[in-house]
């Protein structure tokens, strides 16, 4: 048999039609070709497979044993090719059984996934959603392999080479437990830096962040007495102690146990975005999921 890469795939379409019709004339009509053209192609196919494939019979042409072996796998292969090149079908969320994989830290879970979850379950009740770790380099590689659909990440230090859409701009607020004895009114700068702070250090163990950078530019320093790697643990700390924290505002919305204060200094916020790989950009299901998140939390 000849090298597969050298075969004209149109010849395989002709063979499929011949094996279905057992007649050169009917195969030609099915392919919208002339009978002589199909006869020429059959001759080429016999040469490729080193087999007559179809032999004259009393009621049309009879397939050889080799032709019978080819019939089913050839039909299945052509059907898969037809499916691959056919126009993309529209996505029907109510009928979908997809499993989506999203990379998000606990802030992204609280500020983006949670507000969207009810709409997702209503519109696509048979789908599943998995939240996975957000280590940038690994997440990008997994996106390239189709293992992750979306990444929720701040635009600062976001993975490069991906498509993105900013969902919203976030700002920082000062947060304490309700009834904090030192925060009966908005704090002055002196009071702010003397409070005991907890901060989130995503890499773990850090006691210096954007708030400290701003204070340092003013030759000031605050008291950071606790550093943790996750936002959600901070909420429990604030509810049960007199520590305070500078946190993204969406993280503490509608929490009756916490009190929000305007800090006495301006702390730069950040833009929160969803990121995806080029390979998923035109996929209807993926586009629907992106638009769902955008319509739920985008532009807030």
UniProtKB/TrEMBL annotation:
Gene3D superfamilies: Periplasmic binding protein-like II, Winged helix-like DNA-binding domain superfamily/Winged helix DNA-binding domain. Keywords: DNA-binding, Transcription, Transcription regulation. Pfam families: HTH_1, LysR_substrate. InterPro entries: LysR-type_TF, LysR_HTH_N, LysR_subst-bd, WH-like_DNA-bd_sf, WH_DNA-bd_sf. SUPFAM superfamilies: Periplasmic binding protein-like II (SSF53850), Winged helix' DNA-binding domain (SSF46785). Residues 7-64 form the HTH lysR-type domain. Belongs to the LysR transcriptional regulatory family. This is LysR family transcriptional regulator. It comes from Buttiauxella gaviniae.
